Amino acid sequence: MKQTRSYIQRMSMIGLSILSTMTAFTQHTAQSYKGTIGKTLNDSKEWWVRVTKAPQGAPNVVLVLLDDVGFGASEAFGGLIRTPITDSLANNGLKYTNFHTCAICAPTRAALLTGRNSSFVHEAGFSHIGLSAGYPGWDGRIPSSAGTIAEILRDNGYNTFAVGKYGLTPDEEATDAGPFDRWPSGKGFEHFFGFLGSETDQYKPDLVEDNAHVQPDGRHLNEQITDKAIAYIERQQKSAPGKPFFLYYAPGATHAPHQVSRYWSDQYKGRFSEGWDVYREKVFENQQRLGVIPANARLPERNPHIPAWNTLDADHKKLYERFFEVYAGYLTYTDAEIGRLVHYLKDRNLLDNTIVYLIIGDNGASKEGTREGSLEHTLRYTAKTEEEQFKNNLTQIDSIGTASVFTNYPLGWAQAANTPFREWKQDADAEGGTHNPLVIFYPKKIKAKGDIRTQYGHVTDILPTTLELTGIQKPDHIKGIRQDSIQGTSLAYSIYDKEAASQHKVQYYYIFGSRSIYADGWKAAAAHRPGITDFTFLNGKKIEDQSFDADEWHLYNLNEDPTEVNDLAKKYPEKLASLKKLFDEQAKANYLYPLIDWYDVINGRIHHPNGSHSPGPIK
């Protein structure tokens, strides 16, 4: 009996070895087999595919991406909203004050995860706004030739998790029937818990776990995604202690709907009674004192479409204050949930060897709440006048921030949250749309606590920075598919040398016709807002076509004028012409053309692959 059992065990081991070799050989078709295959085992020589492991001592990576926050919201960067966890990470890490996003969420997320410009393609591309059009740079899908940071780290010995907002799955593929190759699981994440779209109700989310929709449990989504992130890491570390992990933590906050319990929002009762003009002045002063903006910066004038706070009557002030109290509570609550994750890592002795990136917004603060603020989805093009919208909001003031309404604050607070910059989300021509804070926290390697870094950075830089810090090489192939070049620039050089010159020299931006080009401290920019300069388009007014050739270009020297107050277009026409030429070159090289604007979207000139017109809502 003992001999029989021994024989069975030996045969089982041989069978498992053969199976393992065949499986490894099948999975590595690009790598030629180096053994010898004879007719029998005696005249064969075995060979094993090397199992890929992460580099010795490789750090964990936690990438936190907030939504629609604005440069001047959090305390760490001069804002008046309490964010103690963000402050702690910033004060024990590095503050990057010259970091940029893509002015709207889907392009930012595509560029962040792939290290490529959002419209860059080889055989296919990702759209600028998350909708599909029949042009290479508007494909609406991340191509397999642009592997994500999750795919690269997974293939190099990491476990990979994502929670919260994904925002990169085409709408027509976001059902339980798939296909799933453009869900998080198809882009390198071994586990996912969150929502696939651009926004969701925080108490009744369109919730997905791995490859299926699931029922929410009624708690706030921020709490659920934090619990799930901790559970993923806990389970992984029990099974493989010390194995590195990559966590992408992307809450829906602070994108609309702004929903949070009164416990958090009531903490700000009366805190903003002085209004948005005083808020901007106080934050600007804080920012200069903290050094997060240069001493030569100037605060731009209030946008002419926003009324001065001291001209408002008592009812308007009361209503507008409540909108911002809710927003502030929402951000503070989100910071607290990040804190739960950070404290878990610290308690498990994982934090010291963890790189934490905290990007405070995937674009600037949102203008989508219109001048009056909104308790419904404004992009459904309701026919209310501003006076009707104000009266409706005032009657529902006690519901602001609750699960019963779709809360978004008024335009004046969006500009305040973007202090010290002009304009807001969607405006790729202005720093208010593209300029967001970045914190890099890495206790094991970063010893300079709270230092400021002013090197120019972009979301495409996070992937190459991670590869350099983890000691992992960019792969030539992923799953047998040749990879396009990574266009981002590693920021690792700046971590240890705050005086180092910026290495990211050129960057273009484009959203719905608004566009700009940055080149070594100079910036040329053109706004493009056909028929919507007064924001009445959100209240049912018709959008008219406007020629791109009619757009006025502006020129700024950001080294001397970081807040874009002084237009130098007339003073240096040759410089402007050279930058416009550079934009055209970048647009062609990155498959940005044809230019598509709001008129094209709203008037049904863009079609989905199934033949339907594009729906229009911003992502």
From TrEMBL:
Keywords: Calcium, Hydrolase, Metal-binding, Signal
Signal peptide (residue range): 1-26
Pfam families xrefs: Sulfatase
Gene Ontology molecular function terms on file: hydrolase activity; metal ion binding
Family annotation (InterPro entries): Alkaline_phosphatase_core_sf, Sulfatase, Sulfatase_CS, Sulfatase_N
Presence of the UniProt keyword Metal-binding in the record: yes
SUPFAM superfamilies found in the cross-reference section: Alkaline phosphatase-like
Domain Sulfatase N-terminal as annotated: residue spans: 59-472
Family: Belongs to the sulfatase family.
Name of the featured protein: Arylsulfatase
